[in-house]
Amino acid sequence: MRADVQQCIEQIGNVIRGKEAQIELSLICLLARGHLLLEDLPGMGKTTLSQSLSKVLGLEFARIQFTSDLLPADMLGINIYEQSTNSFSFHPGPIFNQVVLADEINRASPKTQSALLEAMAERQVTIDGTTRDLPDPFFVIATQNPLHQSGTHPLPESQLDRFNMQLSLGYPDYESEKAMLLNDTHSCELQTVVDVQTLSQLQQQVEEVTVSDAILHYVLKLVNATRSSSDFPNALSPRAAKALVNTAKAAAFVNERNYVTPEDVQLVFGGVCEHRLRGQLLSQKSSSYSEHLLQQVDPLAA
């Protein structure tokens, strides 16, 4: 594994113990220029993970608490008339940060959800006819409570598809939780490991990772298997296939390779595809559709 990525994982691991795999996948998602959806019960460390990622990467961070009365303007910004200059001046909202935490996104109205997802897709916002670019890098981490909890507006499948990856932290193991209770993790001072310029260079290097025809064939077999079978509630879209390739390239890069292997695809497949396959059944923790699919498709078969 790359030394800088390993250092980031170790730094964040001092705050969120026992979740190295999820931290690694979060970094892979960022390197692939994607956006991340975290679904879990309250108090599992979703916000802490988001803040820790921004600190070790030296990125500007903003947290938006999504509530039922949150308006798009509260997030995007607004033009305000200045009487002294007889003109309007733009007051940017918290969306104009490099890492944006959309906390409890499924508690906001669909209108507000859509405003955020448009910014994610276009990496720009249009307010009163003026288009404004968002920062680069731009990384949205949205947290979502399980859909059985009250006051939630589930994200439709078309909006779930906008997130490159969906992860769940889950409960810590016994030893990790004991260490957390004995030590004040909030007192840990996180050091910046990678600055913004270096991060941009790393993202560009990820794009140069080679994907062979055999790997593309493997990805297409996985995607087409969801479209030709009734075993899956939702089929994978072309956007999902592209996200899978881009994220597998980031996984290969993290593991110091300039080419993608089937193991890279398998490493990220659950995070990239499970929420797309499951759709609004996301909160039901029954059998894993992604694991079932990986068992069905042999990467070595013609």
How does this model look, in words?
The chain is an alpha/beta fold and 302 residues long. The protein contains 12 helices and 9 strands. The protein has 2 domains: 1-196, 3-Layer(aba) Sandwich (Rossmann fold); 208-302, Magnesium chelatase subunit I, C-Terminal domain (Helicase, Ruva Protein, domain 3), CATH 1.10.8. The chain has helices at residues 3-13, 20-31, 46-56, 72-76, 110-122, 157-160, 174-182, 196-207, 213-227, 238-254, 262-278, 289-296, and strands at residues 36-39, 61-65, 77-82, 87-92, 99-103, 124-127, 130-133, 139-144, 165-167. The strands form 3 sheets. A 5-stranded parallel beta sheet has the order 2-5-8-1-9. The radius of gyration is 20 Å and the shape is globular. The model is unreliable at 281-286 (pLDDT under 50).
Broad CATH class of the largest domain: Alpha Beta
| Biggest pleated-sheet summary | 5 strands, parallel
Biggest sheet, spatial arrangement of strands: 2-5-8-1-9
Shape: globular
- Measured by DSSP, the beta-strand proportion falls in 5-15%
By CATH, the superfamily of the largest domain comes out as P-loop containing nucleotide triphosphate hydrolases
Low-confidence stretches: 281-286
Instruction: Count up the domains.
Output: 2
Spell the H/E element sequence.
HHEHEHEEEHEEEHEHHHHHH
Please estimate the helix content.
Answer: 40-55%
| Rg (C-alpha, Å) | 20 Å
Q: Can you give the mean pLDDT?
A: 88
By secondary-structure content and strand pairing, the structural class works out as alpha/beta
**Through-space gap between termini:** 31 Å
Q: What is the number of strand segments? A: 9
CATH topology of the largest domain: Rossmann fold
Number of helices: 12
CATH architecture of the largest domain: 3-Layer(aba) Sandwich
